[in-house]
Amino acid sequence: MSQSTYVIGHQQPDTDTICSAVAYARLKEKQGADAVPARAGELNPETQFVLERWDVDAPSHLEDASGEQLILVDHNEHSQTVTGAREAEIMEIIDHHRIGDVETSSPILFRNEPVGSTATILSELFDDAGETPSTRTAGLLLSGLLSDTVVLRSPTTTDRDRVVAEELAEIAGVDYEEYGKELLTHKSKIGEKTPREMILSDFKEFEFGTHELGIGQIETVEPAVVLHQKDAVLEAMDDVATEREYSAFVLLVTDLLEEDTTALVAGDEIETVEAGLDTAFSEQEAFLPGVMSRKKQVVPPLEDAFR
Amino acid sequence: MSQSTYVIGHQQPDTDTICSAVAYARLKEKQGADAVPARAGELNPETQFVLERWDVDAPSHLEDASGEQLILVDHNEHSQTVTGAREAEIMEIIDHHRIGDVETSSPILFRNEPVGSTATILSELFDDAGETPSTRTAGLLLSGLLSDTVVLRSPTTTDRDRVVAEELAEIAGVDYEEYGKELLTHKSKIGEKTPREMILSDFKEFEFGTHELGIGQIETVEPAVVLHQKDAVLEAMDDVATEREYSAFVLLVTDLLEEDTTALVAGDEIETVEAGLDTAFSEQEAFLPGVMSRKKQVVPPLEDAFR
Ligand SMILES: [Mn+2]
Ligand SMILES: [Mn+2]
Predict the structure, then answer these.
(1) CB–CB of B227/B262 below 8 Å?
(2) Where does the DHHA2 domain lie (chains A, B) (predicted)?
(3) Nearest to A71 by CA among A45, A37, A100, A42
(4) Which one, of A9, A188, A115, A218, lies nearest residue A180 by Cα?
(5) B45: closest CA of chain A, how far (Å)
(6) Of B98, B104, B114, which is closest to A98 when you measure between CB atoms?
(7) How far is ligand 2, taken at its centre, from the CA of residue B277, in Å?
(8) B111 and A CB contact within 8 Å
(9) Where are the alpha helices (DSSP H) in A43-158?
(10) Interface check B160 vs A, CB under 8 A
(11) CATH number for the domain running over B5-186
(12) Sheet strands (E) in chain B
C-alpha cells in the first residue's frame, strides 16, 4: 500500500492555511492521489466558525511529520513548518509568501504567486484542472481568501483575488461582502483571551541572518480591547521573547476599519526594529499609518534591517 | 526612468537556459515590462548553432548583477547564479530543478515544475497569457526543450514536454525528430576542446551541507572521444577539485545513443560518491546503466550521501 500524502499549512494555523489544506487535498483526490488534509496546531475561533458554517470536519492534528510525505500550503519556511518537516519528504509547495529556506533534493512543483491568499491560487488550480469546486469547497476557499485579504481591503489584494472572490461567492451562494463582515466579527473575538493567548494566536517566527524574531498580528475592529491592557500584553511579549531568545518580538495591532496598525515591541533589538520600520517607539509603542500586511509591509523592511 | 529587469539563466549556460531567457524576456515585453535577456557565461557550440539557425542575437553577458533586478530562469540556487546575484533583487523564478537556497524578502512569482525543460513551462506561460510565440521564439523554445530532454529520450521527459514539443514544432515549421538529431550533433562536438574545457562546458556546483561538489556532464554520441583521453581528463578534474576545494568532482559521460553513463571521479570523498551512486569505482571510473539525468538520477542520491 502506498503512503498517504499530508496537505498541511503553517503552525498557528489561520483560515487560509486550513481551508487551503482541505481544498487542495480534495483536488488531489479528484486527480487520483491519496491526499489527506492535516493541521500543525490549534484552530482559531474564526476558522472554527468557517468549518461549522460549511459543515466540514476539522483536519486532524499531525503531531510529528518525520518520515511522512508532505504538501506544504500557505508557507515555505522551516521556522513555520510542522514539527518533523525537516525529516519529511516535501512533495509540493503552494504559497503566496516570500521565498524561504525549504530545499529539496529532487525537482518538485513549487508554485508561489504574489496574490492575496493561497486559496486564490488553489481556485485557479481547480480551473486549470477543469474541475469546479463543490459548494462547500468554494465556501472554504472564499473564507481563506476573504480572511487573508481582510475582505479584499488589504494592500496584498490583487485583481486576481477580486475575480476569484466573485466566482467563489457565486458557487458558494453567498454575498461576499456580507459573508466577509460575518467572518471579521469572528476574527476579532479577542476579548476572552489571556494576553499570552492573544499575542500568540496569529504568530510567526522568522530567522533573519543570526537573529530570530517573533512577529504577531491581531486584526481587529476594536484595537482598544488590546491596547487598554498594554502593560499585561507587553509583559507577555517579554516573557515569550526571553523564553525563545528572540532578538525582538513585534506585535501588530491592526485596526480593520481604520486600516492602520499600532505596533508594540519587546526584546533587546528595539533600535533595529525602529530602523527597519522607519519609526520611533515611545513606551514600546508606535503608530504605523496605512500598515495592514505583516508579509508585505513589515517582514521585508525588518529582514533588511536585521541582515 | 524605471530600471530594466534582466532575465538570466545559470552559469555555464546551456541551450535551455539561453533560449528560456530570450523567450521569457519577449513574453514580459509583450506584457509591457522592460525585460532584457542576459547570460552569465560563454555560449556552448550547440547554443551558438541554435541562435544562428533561428537568426537571433546572443543575449549580452552580464558581468556583475549587484544592484540589478533579476528574473532567474532554469536555476534557483546561488552556487549557479550570475556573479552579484546575492546583491540583486530577485523578481521572479521559472525553473524545473530541485528547490535550492534562493530566498527573497517579498512575495514573488516562483514557478518550479517537474518537467523536462524550462522552455516547456515558458511555452505554457505563453499559452496562459493568450500569446502565441513567433516562429523564431518557438524555434528557440523547441531547441531548449529538445536539448534538455535529449529529444524526449531523457527520463526527465513528461507527457507535457511531448505535447509542447509538437505544438512548438508546428509553429516553428520543423520536424522535431529531424531537427533534434541536428542539435545532438552540435552537442557532441567535443573533439576540438581541451580536457579542461570539456569537463567545464556543462558544469554545476552544489553545496551539500559542509561539502562542495562539482558535477559535470558530457552528453555525446561518441563517449570514446572523452574516455580515450581519460588520464588527461582526470588530471584536469584533479586540478579543478584542488583549486576550488571540492570534496569531489564527478564527471558524467553520457552516451546519448545507448542511454547510459560512464562516471569519472576525482577528489577526497570517493567513498561517499560510491555510497551515493551505489556503485564501485575502479581506476576512478564506474559504469551507470540507464543513467542520463544529472538532476534526477545523480544529484538527489549524492546530496543524501553527503548530508
Ligand atoms: Mn495565506
Ligand atoms: Mn533546463
Answers:
(1) yes
(2) 180-306
(3) A37
(4) A188
(5) 27
(6) B104
(7) 22
(8) yes
(9) 45-53, 118-128, 135-148
(10) no
(11) 3.90.1640.10
(12) 5-8, 35-39, 60-61, 69-73, 89-95, 109-112, 203-208, 211-220, 248-255, 260-266, 285-288
Q: Where are the CATH 3.10.310.20 domain residues in chain B?
A: 195-306
The enclosing H or E element of A285 equals strand A285-288
**What grid cell was written down for A184?**
471579521
> Which of B105, B149, B161, B298 is best to mutate for the A interface (most A CBs within 10 A)?
B105
Q: How far apart are CA B221 and CA B187, in angstroms?
A: 9
According to CATH, where is 3.90.1640.10 located in chain A? Answer: 5-186
Q: Look at A109 and B114 and tell me if their CB atoms are within 8 Å.
A: yes
For B5, residues 6+ apart whose C-beta sits below 8 A from its C-beta are B28, B33, B34, B35, B36, B69, B70, B71, B91
Between CA A236 and CA A233 the distance in angstroms is: 5
DSSP 3-state assignment of A185? helix
Position B37: which residue type? P
Q: With CB atoms and an 8 Å threshold, state whether B108 touches A112.
A: yes
CATH of domain B195-306: 3.10.310.20
For each successive 10 residues of chain B (307 residues), what is the average pLDDT?
Answer: 86 95 97 96 93 97 97 95 96 97 94 97 96 98 95 91 98 96 78 85 92 94 84 95 96 88 96 96 94 94 94
**Which residues neighbour B127 within 8 Å (Cβ) at sequence distance 6 or greater?**
none
Give yes or no for A67 touching B (CB within 8 A): no
Q: What span, in angstroms and rounded, lies between the C-alpha atoms of B158 and B134? A: 24
A73-89 confidence digits (pLDDT tens): 999 999 899 999 999 99
B39: β partners: B61
Q: What is the pTM assigned to this prediction?
A: 0.81
Distance CA A1, CA A50 (A): 34
The residues placing their C-beta within 5 Å of ligand 1, an ion, are A 16, 74, 118, 148
Q: Is B114 in Cβ contact with A98 (below 8 Å)?
A: no
**B2 Rama sector, left if φ>0, alpha if ψ -120 to 50, beta otherwise:** beta
The C-alpha cell of A7 is what? 496537505
Complex-level ipTM: 0.79
Q: Are A106 and B296 an interchain contact pair (Cβ–Cβ within 8 Å)?
A: yes
pLDDT at B34: 96
> Can you give the pLDDT of all 307 residues of chain A as single tens digits?
468 999 999 998 999 999 999 999 999 999 999 999 999 999 988 999 999 999 999 999 999 999 999 999 999 999 899 999 999 999 999 999 999 999 998 999 999 999 999 999 999 999 999 999 999 999 999 999 999 998 998 888 999 999 999 999 999 999 999 999 899 888 766 667 889 989 998 999 999 989 999 999 998 877 888 888 899 999 999 999 999 999 999 999 998 877 899 999 999 999 999 999 999 999 999 999 999 999 999 999 999 999 8
CA separation for the pair B27, B5 (Å, rounded): 13
